[in-house]
Amino acid sequence: MLKKLIAAASLAALVAGAGAANAQQTLRYAFQGNLNTLDPHSLNETTTLGLQGNVYEGLTARDKDLRIVPGLAERWEVLDNGLRWRFYLRKGVKFHNGNDFNADDVVFSTARTLARNSQLAVRLPRDIEAVKVDDYTVDFKLKTPNPILHYSWDTWYMMDKEWTEANNATQPSAPQDPTPSFAVLNANGTGAFRISEHQLGVRTVFEKNPNWWQKSEHNLDRVIFTPITSAPTRVAALLSGEVDIIDPVPLQDVARINASPNARVLEGPEIRTIYMGFDQMRPELTASSVKGKNPFKDMRVRKAFYQAVEIEAIKRQVMRNAATPASSLISPLLFPQVSQIQRHPFDVAAANKLLDEAGYPRGADGTRFEVDLDCPNDRYVNDGPICQAVTAMLARIGIKINLLAVPRAQFFAKANSPVFNTPFYLLGWTPGTMDAHNVLNDLMMCRTPDGSGGRGQFNNGGYCNPKVDELALKVLVEIDTAKRDAMILEAFKILHEDVGYIPLHQQALAWGVSKNVDIVQRADNQPLFYWATKK
């Protein structure tokens, strides 16, 4: 009953807000989760960065086809044999409070991004140095060449040094921080929209920035973002015309929405990979019946779990064929060579044999051991049902799963803590650079001792193979495409043989969109309102 009341209250707030804005061209957008922070250097999460990207901007941008284009920098050049990148900033750009954007803001944003609590530190080499040349020129000095330095800078957003210092927000807040800084609840960017209202868990209002430096392609006066966690409520709001866009569409409702007179489903491929990971760090596995050791340190146990997962059943029954089974942690759309790797086959008998060989026999009740599975239930398409299906599949090989499926905010507060203390988990990953090295660096390299910044920051389970690290470092500086691709493929093959993760699939995008709205749907699933028009 409480959940129904909360959903009704949220929808009532949305309708009330929409009614007040009828005189304006208002787009109403509903997502299954909250916008938990406005701080652009806090949380490295696709939807959060996408929503922030309507307010903040990077030195570079990506166009509708995900190609890198100039952003707050008009152009850039690489000097000193790749050890210095010079960025020429766009003049005349103002933050929403009227302050000028200049080189001081870039140097400040660099230091803030490299601070301890920033998950966006992965956008920058740890030893990078930002040097002001003049008010509109900045040099980035490197210790080693990095040919893809700027590949993820479209979501590395620039902040106003004066505003941030004046509001005592020079340090980013960690996602799990119980006392968030001013920048978590307030925003001051250079982008197409400014934040006029932010009620966490209720709604966020984006107002058109009349002084945006770009020529607007949108015709919106405002956007009202509302989290609606209940899928039926979200669909009902779209079909009744109370919202204009919902994300995601429950797969079972695609046909019904497409048959409606006033809405349609906008579908397309997504580059995000959904995967499962293991705690391979701790000598004793927590939240498990196994004492004195960690079964996930044994490749045979990890492979048994992998081979017990019937990926075609998940595709067919849980995802309703709106997913492409994955053999690794990157989509073939980004790195086609990964198609050479074939999934370990679904084989319950082989999985049982591996567990027997690893020394985990069945008990009198048929159970080998039990372990927790941490899973969000409102972040990815059918994430909760996926984890329920995996729970049933692992029961076939004698593994009792204690499923902890929780809302996105609660899950990421745990997942984003310095030490992600979970034995087994489900996550999704979109390479921020659109390049395979991002996966090598963030998910596959050995995790840094404190779990922060640089290499392996999101390698939550602590997978570690020195050969993969060696290859990742070489890939970073290799400019010969053929040699680089060969090393990337070798690293992914090593990960596959090590069974460092269980890759599941790339999910398909499904947005419910009113027929009087046009919006660009990129494969990175970022909701960018400056490419939306409403009739």
What do you see in this structure?
This protein is of the alpha+beta class. The protein has 15 helices and 20 strands. The chain is 28% helix and 22% strand. Strand 15, helix 11 and strand 16 form a beta-alpha-beta unit.
- Coarse structural class: alpha+beta
Residue-averaged pLDDT: 93
- What is the overall silhouette? globular
Strand content: 15-25%
Helix content: 25-40%
Low-confidence parts: 1-10, 15-22
Determine the N-to-C terminus distance. 37 Å
Number of strands: 20
Biggest sheet layout: 10 strands, mixed
Based on CA atoms alone, the radius of gyration comes out at 23 Å
SS summary, helix count: 15
What oligomeric state do the depicted chains represent?
Answer: single chain
Topology:
Blueprint: H1 2-20, E1 26-31, H2 46-52, E2 60-62, E3 68-70, E4 73-79, E5 84-89, H3 103-113, E6 129-134, E7 137-141, H4 161-166, H5 182-185, E8 193-199, E9 203-208, E10 222-227, H6 231-239, E11 245-247, H7 254-258, E12 263-269, E13 273-278, H8 299-308, H9 311-318, E14 323-325, H10 348-357, E15 369-376, H11 383-395, E16 399-406, H12 408-415, E17 424-429, H13 436-444, H14 466-477, H15 481-498, E18 501-514, E19 517-519, E20 532-534
Parallel strand pairs: 1-10, 1-11, 15-16
Antiparallel strand pairs: 2-3, 4-5, 5-7, 6-7, 8-9, 9-10, 11-18, 12-18, 13-17, 13-18, 14-18, 19-20
Helix pairs in contact: 8-10, 13-14, 13-15, 14-15
